[in-house]
Amino acid sequence: MEMRLKHGLRPRPAIGLGGVASDSVAASGQVKPPVSRPSVMQAPVLVLNATFEPINVTAVRRALVLMLKGVAQAEETNHTEVHSTQKAIQVPSVIRLLSYRHIPQQSRALSRKNILLRDRNTCQFCARAFPASELTLDHVMPRSRGGRSTWENLVACCYTCNNRKGDRTPEEAGIKLQRRPRPFTLHTSRQLMRLIGHRDEKWRKYLFY
Ligand SMILES: [Zn+2]
């Protein structure tokens, strides 16, 4: 069963940066990051609190917005640049918030993006990893049977498994859920940060403290 939530990783329309960033903040409270290949814009960026404590993982696109708004600055960059009409910006690998933000122990907002992040873009039935665009969300207990849209009942699912499962429970469809879905807590974030941090040496010095 397919469900699309608001904050999907869909590429947004192309809008150049050329000197309009501060104006557009003032006008609409929103800044559009420069345009680049979607794969670059979706690469993970480690977010540090003002105190250098790692607090989150976000995508390059969101990190650039935070930088352009003056909320965060890049602490580490990778060797890629994104270009606007007037300037080139180094793609960040680690950013730091300029003012301290209290991070509640509450779990994150339930969204398609966060479910894919929790499930590491991996279909929870066949255990294969996919690009976000090739994944949907599956209600483990189908909605038609009273299954709700909760952290415990939504999982990342590839279209093949989603079709195979249809309006059935995993048991009825003869497919096995890889692991029991859980809410995305700060603990999940930390696990994810460490997992990705093993691959990115620029993250490591901030993660193992
Ligand atoms: Zn699958």
Model description:
With 209 residues, this protein is α+β, with helices and mostly antiparallel strands. It has helices at residues 21-28, 38-41, 60-68, 112-118, 159-165, 170-173, 186-197, 201-207, and strands spanning 44-48, 54-59, 72-83, 88-97, 135-139, 154-158. The strands form two sheets. It has a four-stranded mixed β-sheet, with helices on both faces. A two-stranded antiparallel ribbon has the order 5-6. The N and C termini lie far apart (42 Å). Residues 123, 125-126, 128, 158, 160-161 line the site of zinc ion. Zinc ion binds next to helix 5.
Keywords, separated by commas or semicolons:
209 residues; alpha+beta; four-stranded mixed beta sheet; 8 helices; 28% helix; elongated; disordered N terminus; binds zinc ion
Low-pLDDT ranges: 1-29
**Succession of helices and strands:** HHEEHEEHEEHHHH
Largest sheet: 4 strands, mixed
Beginning-to-end CA distance, first to last residue: 42 Å
Number of helices: 8
Nearest-integer average pLDDT: 79
Helix content: 25-40%
Q: What structural class should be given to the helix and strand makeup? A: alpha+beta
What proportion of the residues form beta strands (DSSP E)? 15-25%
